[in-house]
Amino acid sequence: MEKAPEIQVQIMGQEDKDANSVEQTNGGSHSTATAQHRSYKWWLVMAIYTLFVLAGQSVATLLGRLYYEKGGKNRWLITLVQPVGFPVLIPLYFLSAYKTSTQNSSSNITNPPSILVLSVMYIALGILFAAYSMLYSLGLLYLPVSTYSLICTSQLAFNAFFSFYLNSQKFTPFTINSLVLITMSSTLLVFQNNSSGSTTVSKGNGEYKSLDREMEGFKLGKVSYVNTLVWIAIALQVFSFGSVGLIFEVYSLFSNVISTLEMPIVPVLAIVFFHDKMTGVKVISMLLAIWGFVSYVYQHYVDDRKS
Q1: In this predicted model, what pLDDT tens digit does every residue of 93-114 receive, in sequence order?
Q2: CA–CA separation, 179 vs 59, rounded Å?
Q3: Considering the entire predicted model, what is its pTM?
Q4: Which of 9, 10, 88, 113 is a good FRET partner for 238, with 20 to 30 A between their CA atoms?
Q5: What is the Cα–Cα distance from 215 to 230, expressed in whole angstroms?
Q6: Which of 92-96, 175-179, 264-268 comes out lowest in average pLDDT?
């Protein structure tokens, strides 16, 4: 009779262990489901950012060609229109700042960067972006399309080099294969006929005309002139938003790969919107770019499965 309470206690302890094991099993399955859900959500966000980069850059390039072909010749205006569309991102900035402040308050982070540090960083980035915009316009104005395309393609190699030495970027066979294929696809555009793919004017003879005269001489009319510049500005902001998103969520090399992927896409879109001729070089360039992009995405899929 004295052993009965001990047996009862043992039975109750065993029941508690079974209940705890069931809870742990349910919790583990729930966490696994949450991890899978986060993984799918991450891929969806990456797809959206990639779409923003490709769509924004392609639309801006095509509209830039339209601007030059229909009578626009002002390089300073094209330089200014690249950063001037920033007001469309102000609502997103305040939304991001609100979320960041909420997360910081919940995690007891009390050391945000000072206003002086942020101001210096913003000014430095602004100067660098202004220089980039000016060089971009000069390249479109004075360089042949083949040379300009080759210079734009070379930035991928420089980005890979600095990512390896500065950020300790790990390169795998799939990553290297992707970089080589995308570089080759963009380099092939050098050998296409410049007359069908030019996005520039010859030398910008009327660059210093007043805006009123340039607007009057625009072949599609004043309204189309303004709309072209406005949508170039908006498209470039969409591109910048997607590019920065890819840098934050992945790394800069991936963002540069997606940006370089746009170069073979634009000639194909020009066939549709500008009735350019379809050539074998364009088809091969596009196929190589798609192959390189799939190779890069597959490497991320393999890394995600391992983790």
Answers
A1: 777 665 655 555 555 555 777 8
A2: 24
A3: 0.71
A4: 113
A5: 14
A6: 92-96
